Description:
Strand order of the largest sheet: 5-4-27-26-25-6-7-22
Largest sheet: 8 strands, mixed
Shape: globular
Distance between the termini: 32 Å
Number of helices: 27
Strand content: 15-25%
Helix content: 25-40%
Amino acid sequence: MSGNERPHSGFTRRSFLKTTAVAAGLAAVGTAATPSLQALAANYESGQDETKSEHVFCGVCRGNCSGTCKLNVHVRDNKIVKTSKRKFNSFPNGEIDRICLRGLSHPYNVYGPNRIQYPLRRVGDRGAGEWERISWDEAVTEIAEKWQAIREKYGDQAIAYTRGSGNMGTISGVASPMFNVFFNKINATQIKIARDQANTRGVNRVVGSLGDWVLNDPSDFKNAKTLFVWGANITDAQMHDWHFIAEAQESGTKLVVIDPVLTQLAAKADKWVPIQPAADAALALSMMYVMVSEELENRPFLKEHTCAPFLVREDTGKFLRMSDLGVEPTVIEVSREQVSAASSSNKGAAVGQGSTITKIVDQPAVLEFDGKPVGADDAKDPRLSGTYNFNGVTCRTAYDLLVADIMDYSPEAASKICDIPADTIIELAHMAVDGPCIHRLGWGSNSYTNGVHAAHANITMAALTGQIGYPGAGTGIGDFKPCWGINALVKGMTAAKYPMISALFLPEIMRTGKYKGQDYPIKSLYVYSGNPVCNQVNTNEYLRDIVGNLDFLVVADYTFTDTVKYADIVLPAAHWFEQQDVIAISATQCFIYSEKAIDPLYESKSDLDILRLFAEKMGHPDLLSLSDDQYMAQVINTPALEKLGITWENVKKNEDMYWYPSKPWIPWENAEFKTPSGRMEFYVENPTVQFDMGQEFDVEREHLPRYFNPTEAYQGSPAWDKYKLILLSERPRFRVHSMWSDNQYLRELDPEPTIKMNPVDAGERNIADGDYVEVYNDRGHCVAKAILNDAVRPGCTVYPKSWQQNQFKAGSWSELLTSVYDPVGVNESYFDNLVEIRVWNEG
């Protein structure tokens, strides 16, 4: 680790990590309306009572770190003066009562100089930042008139809307069905962000879906003998989960961190495995090689709870079904309530509109030990191996097909791919068998074009060992998803006329005006709760092909972002603490009530109130006519949640309500999986794509987990002759994506963009610690300060993501990132990039 001083902070990196005081030694900054971080820390008193002069409201910090921490929002004279930690009532032992520097710094976000105060109209060139103030009526009238003109000329689909993850609210945030109510009414096109989906795709196609990011509750970590963390620096990116890991280690759990970089978490690990970037699938496959070769696999689990004994047809790649052997499918009737409560029984096609559903069950065929073919659910002791012929069709078991692939990854062979000693691979395999163990997947392996297979391989290892679905055993990404049981079909909801489109498809659609070969012009984009110009890959492509081909860009935000800079109309959105909401996307597994602490400042409005203005002006005055409370009651007051005592009134009363029947929550208990067979289907019978734009993909490759090179980030790739450094990013503790970027309290600690390099790589390029360097490739460039750091793997560089364009001396990080995507995962490949670095010659 470098011990060099960082500009303006007065700290060395080493001394900062040792410091326990929140803001010791910081110089005070801010205005009378925005007290310094030092003052906030000095006045901090957790659980402070209200007084006549100070009122304390229940707030929720809801950036996309997933922590959703409860906060006391302290208000004096109708001004927020500070925040402090607030207790969770659902966890009386205090295990998730917490606050971080971001949470303490919220007053600056509310009152900072970059706050958007009133509607603005662009008067100069796009991106020039030249505006004129207009009224809300002028803004909404102009938006409605231009949207209507675009619809008449190009069709309804020409109006598109998109969001990021800047507000986890249920009514005015990313989880809000209200945007669908309005935009479905005018038949607009929804553009979905495409980040952090590859590992979800790889896991869910094996076990089915309980949500995008699912794992045992982190309080269960202490029940694991070994906790594997793959590509996640939890001390910074999900710092709210770090204490669970520390407590697990204190209880005797061994921590294994698999990461190319010696991160803060890796430095705390019992074993750090410095893997070659993008090689995670090869490591998992090799660990399975050891398990199979040493006969360590859990054969009873494989037979009973996985597709291992299923017979796979050589001619089609499909499972052999009992109907192929002359056995008619079974027709059964089940109640809809049973299906929703126990989706793991989904073993056939379902039809019907009433209270019951007709299911047609055509079981996969297996061979009993005596050689008789039977349905998988009827087998008592099915065979795991063998090649058989039925009516001229050759079939092999799914297990044999998996093992055939695994056999290409001996520890010696995988060692060359992963740059890990063969003995280490064997040791890791033994640890993964000696359970219970948990594999916590991060965003690292997710960020290459082979990311789906990295997760597929990892969850397949859980099938091989049976280490899933009980205390201390599981594989997944982290339990952060929408609460179960909520209702998205609120008053006014209609079905979308057009398909949801991935943001990664948008550049091509904008270039060609076509979607799946058909005319599909998009001419206007509405952006809320997001900053795609900063956070989406390949900024220059985004500005050229998307923004450059838009007739009309409207952005709603509370602060000036890179995306706001290019808008035609800017709308001032309210801050989280200026509106009432309920948070139903949470790593706490709770519904959390967020009170309105102050009225919206200046002329800002909540996202829902903005939608109401749109609806009225577009000729639908009654579309969003319910009150905020009524909408929240519609979302939460469902039969499934009422059984747990969860209603909107109870959430308001209790502030937070845990939504699982028991703690800690452990997914896939009793080996119940939401796949067509109800088993872990590591052999994917019918591979599909995340978003269908008509893209081709290799169906044969997608049946089983494989290792293959990523697109760019490997030695010998097509770009290797020009660029020989892999560009990795980290999710810093001082921002969440681009949120908090302009918070000057945090900029005292983290003042400018940096790039971490290994001293060996820096020496080869005559780069000294502290030099300003230009990082570049064919897509763009970026200027940042070089930090020489032995913790960075040679051949790699690491940058903290999502600085704003105006915070660089030149360029930006997102310019460098490829927009090439895996056709199956359709996920932004943040790490799949090669660059070169040189000392910056200013000008």
